[in-house]
Design brief:
The complex is a heterodimer of chains A (233) and B (273). With 233 residues, chain A is α/β, with parallel strands linked by helices. Chain A has a single domain, classed as Rossmann fold (3-Layer(aba) Sandwich), CATH 3.40.50. Chain A contains 9 helices and 9 strands. In chain A, helix 4 runs antiparallel to helix 5 and helix 5 runs parallel beside helix 6. Chain A is globular and about 45 Å long. Chain B is an all-alpha fold and 273 residues long. In chain B, helix 4 packs across helix 6, helix 6 runs antiparallel to helix 7 and helix 6 runs parallel beside helix 9. The chains are: A alpha/beta (233), B mainly alpha (273). At the A-B interface, helix 2 and helix 3 of A face helix 1 and helix 3 of B.
């Protein structure tokens, strides 16, 4: 398994100069489903944004297959942000055309199949869709790519439990086994069974990075339970 | 990828811009029909109905042109802001494209629409002028007569026209790049980024105008008074040519600087919330 993402001495400070990410070192290998877990404000989204080139590190570096974020690294990452990034005036079909144009690894037939399974009309304007449906559309778009790395920031936060199951199945069924999936969520119990590895993040630093099975063996509890114990207020 | 970005930018802005330009075109045709249906030599401004009709039409037309140019400029500023620095930026900045491609695609579409709008307005004015004067291209003829009054060597007229067109093109570029740059600088603000962008727009514009005025005064030709007082009287053609040429150089230098700053902010200082 090759190294897909490497964070070296990564630090990110915002305007108040307090580091949100503090000299963090992290390696993500291909072929894993990894849970990036931590309490609010621990820096999960900040790391994800830096991997995607949406934030610049204050110091240190993020390398994707040995390169700092650039158009060729963006071509291999399929990113689902925690917010709706699609233009409300467009139809679902317009967005499929857009993804088809820009991502050579995008599979429109797969997207259409999933839209049909969730009974989402391709001709519908995005502004007419509910927040939950928009999130489903975004996830479908992201999972319809044959990317090397999927980064999903809170993919199941805004949807009902039945849809959560569908989304988790979608993630499992659609990613290439050579690829990696980095999932950032608070709903650990819902995704726990699919996680290969777990990263705990606290105050911008990695406090734990190990296989999910190791937590269950070593501590005799689920990842969710262990998380609650470690981050108990 | 530039072609694909261009395609989508064009597609997304098409409806708004076609409505804006179509409205002016329609207004021009209505004006031509209105003026063409009457004998202008017998037009009586003292008669309330004719005066009101004429006044209303001129007002609507002038406001229409104003809305077309100012409105479309603001529209492209807002598009740039939304696409690059709001939630939509999460999509645009994760596309496998360079920052140059992002800026150039937006700039080229905005410029093409500016040229189309200029053609639409010029054509519209010609159509109205034709309906009144009943001769082809009357406004162009008037411009030609005005140039001839300044006793400019015929060979230089073409050069002046080319340089003036280059200036117009450069100024349109400058207008868009000033907006893009201000929006990008405004992102450094912790809060109220839109207000910060407007502040940056005013500030950068003032600084650039000050630099331009300083250069003009330093070079020290009285012919540059044209740029301050909009008066082209009492100038010789050499001076005029020099003034236009220097204006061309300055406007393109300003464009290059604004472009590079926008690119630098996007590439090295992007911080999407």
């Amino acid at each position: 398994m090759g190294v897909l993402v490497e964070c070296r001495n990564l630090t990110k400070c915002y305007q108040n100069n307090r580091p949100v990410i503090d000299n963090l070192n992290l390696t993500i290998e291909s072929g894993h489903i990894i849970g990036l877990l931590g309490p609010n404000g621990s820096g999960k989204t900040t790391i994800i944004k830096m991997i995607n080139g949406l934030l610049r590190p204050t110091s240190g570096e993020v390398l994707i297959e040995g390169q700092t974020p650039n158009p060729s690294t963006k071509a291999i990452i399929s990113y689902l942000p925690e917010r709706t990034y699609l233009e409300a005036q467009k139809t679902v079909a317009d967005i499929i055309d857009f993804f088809t144009d820009f991502y050579s690894d995008f599979r429109p037939e797969r997207a259409k199949e999933m839209l049909s399974a969730l009974k989402i009309d391709e001709k519908a304007l995005l502004k007419t869709l509910s927040k939950g449906t928009k999130e489903k559309v975004q996830l479908i778009l992201v999972m319809s790519r044959d990317a090397k790395l999927y980064i999903l920031d809170e993919p199941i936060a805004g949807v009902d439990p039945a849809t959560r199951d569908y989304i988790i199945r979608t993630i499992i069924n659609n990613y290439d086994k050579e690829a990696s999936v980095l999932i950032c969520t608070h709903l650990i119990s819902d995704i726990e069974e699919v996680l290969d590895d777990v990263i705990f993040l606290k105050d911008g630093q990695v406090t734990l990075h190990c296989p999910a099975a190791e937590i269950r063996e070593k501590y005799g509890v689920t990842v969710d339970k262990h998380f609650r114990e470690v981050f108990a207020c | 990828m530039l072609g694909k970005l261009f395609k989508h930018e064009w597609k997304d802005s098409f409806l708004f811009m076609i409505i804006m330009n179509g409205s002016i075109l329609l207004l021009s045709i209505l004006g031509a029909v209105f003026f063409g249906s009457m004998d202008v030599s017998e037009f009586d401004f003292e008669r309330p109905f004719q005066g009101l009709m004429y006044g209303t039409y001129v007002l609507v037309y002038v406001v229409g042109i104003f809305v077309l140019f100012i409105g479309s400029t603001i529209y492209f500023y807002v598009r740039f802001f939304r696409n690059m620095y709001t939630d939509q930026g999460y999509l645009m900045h994760t596309l496998p494209v360079t920052e140059h491609e992002l800026i150039l695609s937006k700039l080229s579409v905005a410029m093409i629409w500016k040229i189309i709008s200029t053609i639409v307005v010029t054509f519209g004015l010609e159509v109205i002028a034709y309906s009144i004067a009943k001769e082809s291209f009357p406004t162009l003829r008037e411009i030609k007569r005005a140039i001839q009054r300044f006793d400019i060597e015929p060979g230089r007229i073409t050069l002046i026209i080319i340089l003036s067109l280059l200036f117009s093109l450069g100024y349109a570029l400058y207008t868009y790049l000033l907006g893009y740059d201000s929006v990008s600088v405004g992102q450094f603000a912790v809060k109220n980024k839109v207000i910060a962008s407007v502040g940056a727009f005013i500030g950068i514009r003032m600084i650039l105008r000050f630099i331009r005025n300083l250069i003009m005064i330093t070079i020290g030709s009285t012919t540059f008074s044209r740029f301050f007082f909009l008066s082209v009287s009492r100038i010789d053609d050499k001076g005029f040519l020099l003034a236009v040429a220097i204006s061309d150089i300055l406007v393109y230098i300003a464009c290059a600087a604004l472009y590079l700053i926008t690119h630098m902010i996007m590439k090295n200082r992007l911080n999407l919330e």
